[in-house]
Backbone:
């Protein structure tokens, strides 16, 4: 008789890099057992953007209850958890410190290994939670509030950054454009909703940066600012057309450059990740135009969450990449 040993690895993920307090339990890097996100968006929208001091204080209030909820929503006990994975950077220093210190305290109290995770790597691993397992080599486009990175991934933990934004990140550009158009915060979902079914009738510039895999969105933002300043935008349908024009310019540049790089490098797939990947116009453009399959997490796994951190932690755990209890936050952490 053959005896098959099935090992199940459950990782608790903790994410507090920006304004979402999140904890999740993920099994074998693929199955979400719980995924709790406490958003601070209502608090920060009053100020038109994230206030770092407020964010870290709010994490202090919500982090432990969020971890407790993530554990309570599973059948798991602490004995069933193999390790704790926590975002150590990039992000806001005060926010990261809350998550890392809670992860350290819980890991020490429960005698569990601790794994520090790069938030951007975590975003990529949201693609392992969606059913279809990604195939290497793949090209990852990470588009969030702080980053727009084009990264080659040849295997688990093997990343090479090809390009990045030279100024504003794509999400940051959406947030600033929404402010210019008076659409509130967070800007990405506001622009998307306003632009829905509208014709992008304004000609806005695209920075192609030929010969480079870098991006630039500050010229586009300035062009939108001048358009709104120099013309009458009291009519809401003109605002909607400007939102659609802005969105189309961002989508054109991100997708065209990523698809060109994918063709040049001969990758098997493109993976999208980060909050801006929740944008339907971007998702549709990639799906219609990419010559290779495109994997995109569901919108709720594109924006910040801890399931992606736990999934990434699983592969660190399998590769033996365990950290000491003395890990520190690295607010400016990037890819290699
Ligand atoms: O990945 P994320 O949740 O947090 C960071 O790591 O920054 O990304 C947040 C960013 C914000 O700039 C937000 O405006 C943008 O993602 N975003 C979107 C959409 N949903 C969120 N941008 C465009 N369209 C969306 N639907
Ligand atoms: Zn993020």
Residues:
């Amino acid at each position: 008789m053959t005896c098959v040993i099935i090992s199940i690895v459950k990782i608790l993920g903790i994410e507090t890099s920006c304004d979402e307090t999140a904890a999740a339990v993920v099994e074998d890097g693929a199955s979400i057992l719980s995924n709790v996100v406490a958003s601070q968006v209502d608090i920060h929208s009053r100020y038109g953007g994230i206030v770092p001091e407020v964010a870290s204080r709010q994490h202090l209030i919500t982090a432990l209850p969020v971890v407790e909820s993530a554990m309570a929503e599973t059948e798991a006990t602490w004995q069933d958890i193999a390790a704790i994975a926590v975002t150590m950077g990039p992000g806001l220093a005060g926010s990261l410190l809350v998550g890392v210190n809670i992860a350290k305290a819980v890991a020490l109290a429960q005698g569990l290994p601790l794994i520090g995770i790069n938030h951007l790597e975590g975003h990529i691993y949201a693609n392992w939670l969606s059913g279809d397992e990604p195939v290497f080599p793949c090209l990852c486009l990470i588009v969030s509030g702080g980053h727009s990175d084009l990264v080659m991934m040849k295997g688990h933990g093997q990343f090479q950054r090809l390009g990045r934004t030279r100024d504003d990140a794509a999400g940051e550009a959406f947030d600033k454009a929404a402010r210019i158009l008076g659409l509130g915060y967070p800007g990405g979902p506001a622009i998307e909703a306003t632009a829905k079914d509208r014709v992008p009738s304004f000609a806005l510039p695209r920075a192609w940066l030929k010969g480079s895999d870098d991006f630039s969105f500050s010229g586009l933002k300035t062009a939108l600012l001048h358009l709104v300043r120099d013309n009458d935008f009291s009519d809401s349908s003109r605002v909607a057309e400007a939102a659609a024009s802005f969105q189309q310019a961002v989508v054109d540049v991100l997708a065209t450059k990523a698809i060109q790089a994918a063709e040049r490098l001969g990758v098997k797939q493109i993976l999208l990740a980060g909050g801006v990947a929740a944008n339907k116009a971007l998702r549709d453009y990639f799906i219609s135009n990419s010559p290779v399959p495109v994997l995109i997490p569901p919108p709720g796994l594109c924006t910040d969450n801890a399931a992606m951190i736990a999934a990434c932690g699983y592969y660190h755990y399998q590769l033996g990449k365990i950290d000491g209890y003395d890990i520190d936050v690295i607010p400016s952490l990037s890819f290699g």
